[in-house]
Amino acid sequence: MNSCLEAEHSPIFVNGPIIVGAGPSGLSVAACLSNRGVPSVILERTDCLASLWQKRTYDRLKLHLPKHFCELPLMKFPKNFPRYPSKQQFISYIESYAARFNIEPVFNQTVEKAEFDVVSGLWKVKTQDGVYTSKWLVVATGENAEPVVPDIPGLKNFTGPVVHTSAYKSGSEFANQKVLVVGCGNSGMEVCLDLCRYNALPHMVVRNPVHVLPRDFFGLSSFGIAMTLLKWFPLKLVDNLLLLLANSYLGNTDRLGLRRPKTGPIELKNVTGKTPVLDVGAISLIQSGQIRVTQAVKELTKKGAKFVDGQEMEFESIILATGYKSNVPDWLKEYSFFTKEGMPKTPFPNGWKGENGLYTVGFTKRGLLGTALDAVKIAEDITDQWMKSNGPLSASNICSSCIIHFHFNKS
Ligand SMILES: Cc1cc2nc3c(=O)[nH]c(=O)nc-3n(C[C@H](O)[C@H](O)[C@H](O)COP(=O)(O)OP(=O)(O)OC[C@H]3O[C@@H](n4cnc5c(N)ncnc54)[C@H](O)[C@@H]3O)c2cc1C
Ligand SMILES: NC(=O)C1=CN([C@@H]2O[C@H](COP(=O)(O)OP(=O)(O)OC[C@H]3O[C@@H](n4cnc5c(N)ncnc54)[C@H](OP(=O)(O)O)[C@@H]3O)[C@@H](O)[C@H]2O)C=CC1
Ligand SMILES: O=C(O)C(=O)Cc1c[nH]c2ccccc12
């Protein structure tokens, strides 16, 4: 049944959870619910699945954790996929995943406001087309919902192109240019690597300490080594071992202008969400001088930048590899469960369940691995409640339990 939703003035009651976001997290929850016979509705602001991956990442991107750490619940990657699937392979997996579980999000529905109505005991979720209501609200809008565009002094003066990595596709657009790359996270490093492939001369701004690990050590993934060791050893010991291996493999990155934070790489990721760089070649290009490292920017000028160490250089373009942020505070009107930065106040592994039927998925600071863990817990919790009020319905007559015709993820 694919009846189209018609914009109605009266609220649209959903007899199942409303999931905001059709990224891997929202799809995982819908799939786990569908697998238990519980319908749901996904509201997605764009016109596609996994829009971060489809619309806001660069061409050469790959998963940088081995694929078995990035699988969504109930469906493995195809066996013929490489250890690190490409962006295109990941997207095809996502599309197969949605098809497998009959997930049909309602696209082009930006959730502008969601709040809990204590009188009715329902969540009221407003989009540009109407108001949806449900007993359950699943926040799946992601840790990386919006680009971070820092207010660098003089940014408006610069006369060349300024592009955030969410809009960067390939170095082909910057061939042979001298480019300032602001940010030395995984995006900054990978964009510099990409720019070198097009004979550009990237200068990467490094303003604070950063951890860099080789993505692989002698054929083994750093992340895989860490996860294996963590089964038997404490986090600080594992981090110290990772750093020993990294320094033996990459050399002392301090000498390259990349000081390391005092907290270990995995601990820093788990606590702050700051991901260590998993190097796939940028370090050797820094060592060879093809990628230059600069101090923090003091201000931008019409033709370039002044740095805190007094240096001044001209650039043809600027790439802002300055990260992303959550947008939950922009639309979710609840003030006890989320921080003002839009992350759950309750740390992992307990940040998936709030009050009054509120759930979050994909805010664990653990990437797709965390997404999968959250989705299973959320689906189990909602299913228990849903069955109590709907009874064990078979898939064939489930639609009779829905009060309105709409796209829903059939079980
Ligand atoms: C460049 C990059 C590479 C990454 N690589 C990896 C990796 O290799 N491994 C890994 O584990 N993680 C990686 N991540 C982390 C990434 O967050 C996860 O891979 C994954 O995308 C998280 O899925 P999600 O559904 O939680 O969030 P997203 O993928 O961000 O999806 C959120 C969805 O919600 C929608 N949305 C947002 N706001 C609204 C709204 N108000 N109304 C309606 N819809 C809305 C968005 O359009 C989007 O489709 C990477 C992140 C980035 C930015
Ligand atoms: N699968 C893959 O291969 C990839 C995965 N990713 C993932 O995507 C997510 C986002 O990564 P990324 O886009 O790199 O963002 P990050 O948040 O990891 O890094 C942002 C970088 O920008 C810097 N920055 C921010 N503002 C300024 C400023 N005003 N001046 C100078 N530097 C500034 C930060 O420095 P500071 O530390 O000082 O704040 C930091 O180095 C991460 O989880 C990452 O793991 C990204 C790329 C590739
Ligand atoms: O790349 C991301 O955004 C991720 O969240 C993947 C990830 C989760 N935990 C990590 C620890 C070290 C490096 C990457 C990750």
From TrEMBL:
The protein's annotated pathway: Plant hormone metabolism; auxin biosynthesis
GO biological process: auxin biosynthetic process
NADP is among the record's keywords: yes
Its EC number(s): 1.14.13.168
Cofactor(s) listed: FAD
One Gene Ontology molecular-function label: indole-3-pyruvate monooxygenase activity
InterPro entries for this protein: Auxin_biosynth/cation_transpt, FAD/NAD-bd_sf
Segments forming a coiled coil: none
Family: Belongs to the FMO family.
Protein name, as recorded: indole-3-pyruvate monooxygenase
Organism field: Brassica oleracea var. oleracea
